[in-house]
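haha ok so turns out i had the wrong file open the whole time. this is the CORRECT one, sorry everyone. sequence first:
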Amino acid sequence: MAVIINGRDLTIEEVIRVCRNYEKVEIADDAKEAINKARAYVEKKVADKAVVYGLTTGFGKFANVSISTEETAQLQKNLIMSHTCSLGNNYETKYVRAAMLLRANSLAHGNSGIRLSTVQTLVDMLNAGIHPLVPEKGSVGASGDLAPLSCIALGLIGMGKVEYKGEIVDAQKAFDAEGLTPVELASKEGLALNNGTQMLTAVGLNTLWDAVNLMKIADIAGAMTGEALHAVRKAYDPKTHLLRPHQGQIDCAANMRALLEGSGNATWTNPNKVQDPYSQRCIPQVHGACRDAINYVWKAVSIEINSVTDNPIVFPDEDEAISGGNFHGEPMAMAFDFLKMALAELADISERRQDRMLNGAMSEGLPTFLVKNGGLNNGYMIAQYCAASMVSENKIYAHPSVVDSIPTSANQEDIVSMGATSARTAAMVLDNAQKVLGIELSTAAQAIWLRQELGDPVIDNLAPGTRAAYDFIRQTIPPVEEDIIMHDQLVQFDEMVKNNSILEAVEKVVELI
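then structure:
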């Protein structure tokens, strides 16, 4: 089924279907009418030689320079070519596809003044799998993502390189193969294509999608550690959490109860200890706060993907073209900085739980570094080093990008969002957090197995939820009897986190929030 865009009700889930699953896209009929209406208004203003920013004037600091009617098309082409200043590695295809969809959806709202044929060609490129190469670095998130969106627009006009059927080719070659005709830009169109927040939003949206699943995987990892360390489940009593009713905390506590329901290891009370350390006892408070942050970002992104973010914005019914600042990336920059802090915290608390299993002084009888014949064997010693290195790295990435600003365009754009950096670093933090939680799953599974080996029937007493996780792991990854090439095992855990296979295995048994 195709995803129908009209600029108003696109969902995050639909974006993921298009950018990752290559679902087709169509423009709604009512959106086509709105696009045509706005375009007719722009053409009238150009014909009347009205002074409108970006239509009959230059851009940025050149806003006071008048452009003749005959030069308006060249103005738009020059805008795109001159703004393709991105550098660095190319964005992943899923990010470029998401940005193309989001740009088309914004234009479909009918307030940008672009031609329907231009928007349709952008959609045709997306459906044909023609993806312009977009280097990662070069956006300050001020007039949106000028440089990266210009790279997408460059492909639209048949210039530059694109990724097509797994190869890097000239844009014109890909167009020819698909029977498409590159766009010859008309008045206002270059500006409509490269003013906006769609590239940074595309990166952040993909990161957000994976973060939602990681919230649940973090709860699974915490529950497995609870089994290994005989956690006290009463800390997850709903009465406690209803007295501090943050929704994320309530939901996480419910997950922990569901995952550990029926456990003979993590019992409701424990005569040998009153309470667990914070990294176990405060899982609902820490994971819950991360959940609330991620849910906030979800709401913010849901608004952004259905917003008009170019400039000027045209209002045909009111006979107005308003030069405003909807292109500014501040709302998304703050959201994605919040997202990366939440993800960093999920990794932070996970590493602390790992250390408690590995440290013989705190592991409640488990062998140091979770290995038999320690000394000869090193076990999971360096796995925790690896987790610690990524947790520490996250502290650098998680520094809010939005608090920085470097004026651009001869000080015309004197406060910028750095939202592209917020999104890119959020993706880096996500990757680290996924790896760290994979390491916790590996150590928890090893700890559970070792206790059983030492005569404590932990495996036999696992809750159904954690047993599903443990059994899934053991289908492909055996316990560590003696030192192995640890990298190979940790890659397997990283993969099961990223492809959500362990989450799917657990949710066949326990429904998680």
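The mean pLDDT is 94.
again sry for the mixup
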